[in-house]
Amino acid sequence: MTTPNKTPPGTDPEQLEKTGTVREIGSQAVWSLSSCKPGFGVDQLRADNLETYWQSDGSQPHLVNVQFRRKTTVKTLHIYADYKSDESYTLSKISAKVGNNFHNLQEIRQLELVEPKTLTLLKIQN
After folding, report:
1. DSSP-assigned beta bridge partners for residue 95
2. What would the pLDDT profile of 55-104 be if each residue is shown by its tens digit?
């Protein structure tokens, strides 16, 4: 049995990294969540497996905070969401905010999703 990839065929992040198209930098960051149910936290969110996921446990908004230790340029955010699997729990809005610390974050991009089943690309920087 093979482990399903996080991304659809043709957009395998490892292949894109090998060609130099993208570089995964999430491992350089400190990740935190506004809430999570036991066994459904950051490790599951970042796992390269469609069978694992983050499940929030608290009031909205549900937040994923990604903090880099030094100034880091992020050009694109890749997110996989599947409405068919998650139904009402599927994310419907993505907001990208940047700043020097948690208290001076400013929204730079927002994306509304309607029943997604795809790898969503949110272009952060031109």
Report:
1. 110
2. 899 888 899 999 999 999 888 887 888 888 776 778 888 899 999 888 99
What domains appear along the chain, each with residue ranges and CATH number?
1-24+74-125 (2.60.120.260), 26-73 (no CATH)
pTM across the whole model:
0.76
What sign does the CA torsion over 41, 43, 47, 52 have?
negative
Instruction: Report phi then psi at 112, rounded to 5.
Output: -95, 135
Token pair belonging to 82: 């599947």
Structure token digits, residue 77: 């955010």
Alpha-carbon distance values, 115 to 48, 89, 90, 92, 118 (Å): 22, 10, 8, 8, 10
Q: Omega into 4 within 30° of 0, i.e. cis?
A: no
How high is the pLDDT of residue 121?
64
Query: How far apart (Å, rounded) are the C-alpha atoms in residues 67 and 99?
Result: 10
